[in-house]
Protein backbone atom coordinates (compact mmCIF):
# COMPACT_ATOMS: atom_id res chain seq x y z
CA UNK A 1 0.00 0.00 0.00
CA UNK A 2 1.38 3.39 -0.98
CA UNK A 3 0.18 6.63 0.57
CA UNK A 4 0.08 9.74 -1.62
CA UNK A 5 0.35 13.32 -0.37
CA UNK A 6 0.25 16.39 -2.61
CA UNK A 7 1.95 19.71 -1.87
CA UNK A 8 2.92 22.80 -3.82
CA UNK A 9 6.30 24.54 -3.85
CA UNK A 10 5.97 28.04 -2.44
CA UNK A 11 8.40 30.91 -2.85
CA UNK A 12 9.54 30.43 0.76
CA UNK A 13 10.62 26.85 -0.13
CA UNK A 14 13.15 28.04 -2.70
CA UNK A 15 16.69 29.38 -2.48
CA UNK A 16 18.47 32.17 -4.34
CA UNK A 17 18.75 29.93 -7.42
CA UNK A 18 14.95 29.52 -7.51
CA UNK A 19 15.00 25.81 -6.68
CA UNK A 20 13.75 24.04 -3.58
CA UNK A 21 16.27 24.41 -0.77
CA UNK A 22 17.56 20.92 0.03
CA UNK A 23 16.35 20.82 3.65
CA UNK A 24 12.77 21.51 2.57
CA UNK A 25 12.48 18.05 1.02
CA UNK A 26 12.74 16.74 4.58
CA UNK A 27 9.78 18.95 5.52
CA UNK A 28 7.78 17.64 2.57
CA UNK A 29 8.34 14.00 3.52
CA UNK A 30 7.65 14.75 7.22
CA UNK A 31 4.28 16.26 6.32
CA UNK A 32 3.50 13.24 4.18
CA UNK A 33 4.34 10.84 7.05
CA UNK A 34 2.15 12.86 9.42
CA UNK A 35 -0.80 12.71 7.02
CA UNK A 36 -0.23 8.99 6.41
CA UNK A 37 -0.38 8.24 10.15
CA UNK A 38 -3.45 10.48 10.50
CA UNK A 39 -5.19 8.66 7.63
CA UNK A 40 -4.42 5.36 9.36
CA UNK A 41 -6.58 6.68 12.20
CA UNK A 42 -3.78 7.29 14.68
CA UNK A 43 -3.95 10.48 16.73
CA UNK A 44 -0.33 11.26 17.62
CA UNK A 45 -1.25 13.94 20.19
CA UNK A 46 -3.55 11.49 22.01
CA UNK A 47 -0.92 8.73 21.76
CA UNK A 48 1.61 11.02 23.45
CA UNK A 49 -0.86 12.19 26.11
CA UNK A 50 -2.11 8.69 26.97
CA UNK A 51 0.99 6.51 26.57
CA UNK A 52 3.84 8.98 26.30
CA UNK A 53 4.73 7.48 22.92
CA UNK A 54 6.24 9.62 20.17
CA UNK A 55 7.97 8.88 16.89
CA UNK A 56 11.49 10.03 16.07
CA UNK A 57 13.57 9.73 12.94
CA UNK A 58 16.48 7.44 13.78
CA UNK A 59 18.09 7.40 10.36
CA UNK A 60 17.51 8.92 6.96
CA UNK A 61 19.20 8.29 3.64
CA UNK A 62 18.39 10.89 1.00
CA UNK A 63 19.11 11.23 -2.71
CA UNK A 64 18.53 14.53 -4.46
CA UNK A 65 17.90 13.58 -8.08
CA UNK A 66 16.45 16.66 -9.82
CA UNK A 67 15.44 20.13 -8.64
CA UNK A 68 11.88 21.14 -7.82
CA UNK A 69 10.96 24.71 -8.74
CA UNK A 70 8.66 27.43 -7.49
CA UNK A 71 4.97 26.60 -8.02
CA UNK A 72 5.61 22.93 -8.88
CA UNK A 73 2.90 20.56 -7.73
CA UNK A 74 4.63 17.67 -5.97
CA UNK A 75 3.45 14.26 -4.90
CA UNK A 76 5.09 12.49 -1.97
CA UNK A 77 4.68 8.71 -2.03
CA UNK A 78 5.20 6.78 1.20
CA UNK A 79 5.34 3.03 1.60
CA UNK A 80 6.39 0.67 4.35
CA UNK A 81 9.59 -1.18 3.60
CA UNK A 82 10.28 -2.94 6.89
CA UNK A 83 8.70 -3.46 10.26
CA UNK A 84 10.39 -4.35 13.54
CA UNK A 85 8.97 -4.24 17.06
CA UNK A 86 10.14 -0.67 17.78
CA UNK A 87 11.09 0.50 14.28
CA UNK A 88 9.39 1.25 11.03
CA UNK A 89 11.30 1.56 7.75
CA UNK A 90 9.73 3.70 5.05
CA UNK A 91 10.56 4.58 1.46
CA UNK A 92 9.49 8.06 0.41
CA UNK A 93 9.70 9.56 -3.06
CA UNK A 94 8.94 13.12 -4.16
CA UNK A 95 7.68 13.39 -7.72
CA UNK A 96 6.73 16.12 -10.14
CA UNK A 97 4.32 14.33 -12.43
CA UNK A 98 6.09 11.07 -13.29
CA UNK A 99 9.59 12.45 -12.62
CA UNK A 100 11.22 11.39 -9.35
CA UNK A 101 13.03 14.36 -7.83
CA UNK A 102 13.97 13.05 -4.39
CA UNK A 103 14.20 9.60 -2.83
CA UNK A 104 14.57 8.76 0.85
CA UNK A 105 14.72 5.78 3.16
CA UNK A 106 13.54 6.73 6.63
CA UNK A 107 13.77 4.68 9.80
CA UNK A 108 11.37 5.73 12.55
CA UNK A 109 11.57 4.57 16.14
CA UNK A 110 8.87 4.68 18.80
CA UNK A 111 10.07 6.34 21.99
CA UNK A 112 8.48 6.09 25.42
CA UNK A 113 8.19 8.77 28.10
CA UNK A 114 11.82 8.23 29.18
CA UNK A 115 13.13 8.63 25.63
CA UNK A 116 13.99 4.95 25.31
CA UNK A 117 12.79 2.82 22.39
CA UNK A 118 9.57 0.92 22.94
CA UNK A 119 7.27 -1.23 20.84
CA UNK A 120 5.32 0.46 18.10
CA UNK A 121 1.69 1.02 19.04
CA UNK A 122 -0.15 -2.18 18.16
CA UNK A 123 -2.62 -0.41 15.88
CA UNK A 124 0.19 1.13 13.83
CA UNK A 125 2.15 -2.12 13.64
CA UNK A 126 -0.95 -3.98 12.41
CA UNK A 127 -1.85 -1.30 9.88
CA UNK A 128 1.72 -1.02 8.62
CA UNK A 129 2.02 -4.80 8.36
CA UNK A 130 -1.19 -4.98 6.32
CA UNK A 131 0.27 -2.32 4.01
CA UNK A 132 2.69 -4.72 2.35
CA UNK A 133 5.46 -4.40 4.91
CA UNK A 134 8.06 -7.10 5.00
CA UNK A 135 8.50 -7.97 8.70
CA UNK A 136 12.14 -8.22 9.72
CA UNK A 137 13.36 -10.96 12.05
UniProtKB/TrEMBL annotation:
<dbReference type="GO" id="GO:0047617">
    <property type="term" value="F:fatty acyl-CoA hydrolase activity"/>
</dbReference>
<comment type="similarity">
    <text>Belongs to the 4-hydroxybenzoyl-CoA thioesterase family.</text>
</comment>
<dbReference type="InterPro" id="IPR006684">
    <property type="entry name" value="YbgC/YbaW"/>
</dbReference>
<protein>
    <submittedName>
        <fullName>Tol-pal system-associated acyl-CoA thioesterase</fullName>
    </submittedName>
</protein>
<dbReference type="InterPro" id="IPR029069">
    <property type="entry name" value="HotDog_dom_sf"/>
</dbReference>
<dbReference type="Pfam" id="PF03061">
    <property type="entry name" value="4HBT"/>
</dbReference>
<keyword id="KW-0378">Hydrolase</keyword>
<dbReference type="InterPro" id="IPR014166">
    <property type="entry name" value="Tol-Pal_acyl-CoA_thioesterase"/>
</dbReference>
<feature type="domain" description="Thioesterase">
    <location>
        <begin position="18"/>
        <end position="101"/>
    </location>
</feature>
<dbReference type="InterPro" id="IPR050563">
    <property type="entry name" value="4-hydroxybenzoyl-CoA_TE"/>
</dbReference>
<dbReference type="InterPro" id="IPR006683">
    <property type="entry name" value="Thioestr_dom"/>
</dbReference>
Amino acid sequence: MTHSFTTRVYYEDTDLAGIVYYANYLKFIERARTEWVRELGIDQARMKAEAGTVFAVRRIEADYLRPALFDDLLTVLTRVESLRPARLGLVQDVLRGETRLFAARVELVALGPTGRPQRLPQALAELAASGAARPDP
